[in-house]
User: Which sequence fits this backbone?
């Protein structure tokens, strides 16, 4: 008998998850981290008969891994969701209330991404209770810190391996095959401090940063005019933070600009950095007193998987079978842990529930879509972990 989802279990689990404060402590002083929610997930997986391991990455910051063992010899599939959320300041109503209204469940993390976590647990329950055999392992993972620096996923790939992964970030039940990456830059301009009355001695670093910003605006507009990636659109950038000078009556000796550059699949850090360095070179050629540097401070790669990849075909088949319609292939403009999995060699795709209000005052998830996601994940896992390959000719 094929796996059948228990909707009441999925809904109850989601409500329990919402009621746990798992705010990322790097983002909010009210954040409790993942220890409590990790313990809940670990117990739930243990009760379903999975082999469970909890990895403490930092005090109060944990990953949870549950393995539903196959009979051996087949491909392993990893299901993933992050357990942390952003903060709750300014939210309407009780952010931990898990209130259900007109088919929507409200609360912090409802769509991003405790609905997905509940769906994964529902899929694991259906697979564990179904009278079917599969050869490959199904690995259910809840990770820490995706909302900040992804220390959870960085650690997970050191301990777990599988041929493929499904990251259940919210996609409104579309089959997501790509997303953008990002690079954070520090741009510094250097002047010479002097009394505000002595213009002959002072060199204004802030004014020089203004010249850079004017040219950065030109680059930003040009980026958005480039031929867009078919799934994620064009690249972009924004000037995020600006800091310079010490006192009103002193020429600024230093100015710091922090930039975020969103990259599309196929773009490299070297290419993006060269575009910024070209602006600096041009400004230096125009004025020998112009001094500036650009430094990549942190980056995450973009992600893309081809439509022909086996895990994409298995997921598409499960979606087609369940919904009776052809799945819509999409891309996302935001970054996810899928890029880390892909860089580590996991064949990776994304699908998540329908909802709204991510990181905002009123977050919600459509309950039916959470149940739908659970069934699609169970059917995909059974297909992928039972079968060595699906031929493209099947479709």
Assistant:
């Amino acid at each position: 008998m094929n796996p059948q989802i228990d909707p009441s279990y999925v809904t109850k689990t989601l409500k329990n998850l919402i009621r746990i404060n798992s705010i990322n402590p790097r983002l909010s002083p009210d954040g409790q981290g993942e220890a409590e929610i990790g313990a809940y997930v670990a117990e739930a997986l243990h009760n379903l008969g999975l082999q469970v391991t909890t990895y403490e990455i930092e005090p109060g910051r944990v990953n949870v891994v549950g393995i539903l063992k196959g009979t051996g010899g087949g491909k392993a599939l990893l299901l993933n969701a992050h357990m942390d959320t952003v903060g709750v300041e300014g939210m309407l109503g009780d952010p931990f209330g898990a209130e259900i209204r007109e088919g929507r469940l409200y609360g912090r993390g409802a769509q991003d991404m405790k609905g997905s976590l509940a769906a994964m647990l529902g899929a694991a329950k259906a697979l564990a209770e179904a009278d079917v055999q599969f050869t490959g392992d199904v690995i259910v993972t809840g990770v820490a810190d995706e909302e900040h620096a992804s220390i959870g996923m960085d650690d997970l790939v050191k301990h777990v391996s599988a041929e493929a992964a499904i990251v259940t970030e919210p996609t409104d039940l579309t089959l997501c095959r790509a997303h953008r990456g990002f690079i954070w830059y520090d741009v510094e301009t250097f002047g010479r401090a002097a009394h505000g009355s002595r213009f002959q001695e002072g060199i204004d670093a802030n004014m020089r940063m203004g010249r850079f910003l004017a040219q950065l605006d030109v680059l930003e507009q040009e980026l958005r005019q480039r031929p867009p990636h078919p799934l994620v659109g064009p690249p972009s950038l924004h000037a995020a933070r600006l800091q310079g000078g010490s006192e009103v009556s002193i020429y600024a000796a230093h100015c710091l600009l922090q930039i975020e550059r969103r990259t599309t699949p196929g773009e490299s850090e070297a290419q993006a950095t060269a575009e910024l360095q070209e602006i600096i070179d041009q400004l230096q050629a125009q004025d020998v007193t112009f001094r500036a540097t650009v430094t990549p401070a942190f980056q995450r790669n973009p992600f893309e998987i081809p439509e022909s990849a086996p895990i994409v075909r298995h997921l598409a088949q499960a979606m087609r079978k369940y919904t009776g319609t052809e799945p819509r292939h999409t891309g996302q403009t935001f970054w996810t842990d899928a890029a880390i999995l892909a860089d580590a060699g996991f064949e990776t795709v994304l699908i998540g529930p329908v909802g709204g209000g991510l990181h905002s005052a009123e977050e919600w998830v459509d309950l039916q879509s959470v149940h739908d996601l659970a069934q699609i994940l169970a059917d995909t896992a059974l297909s992928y972990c039972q079968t060595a390959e699906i031929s493209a000719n099947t479709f």
About this structure: The chain has nine helices and 17 strands. The two ends are 24 Å apart (CA to CA). The first helix runs from residue 7 to 18. Confidence is low (pLDDT under 50) at residues 388-395.
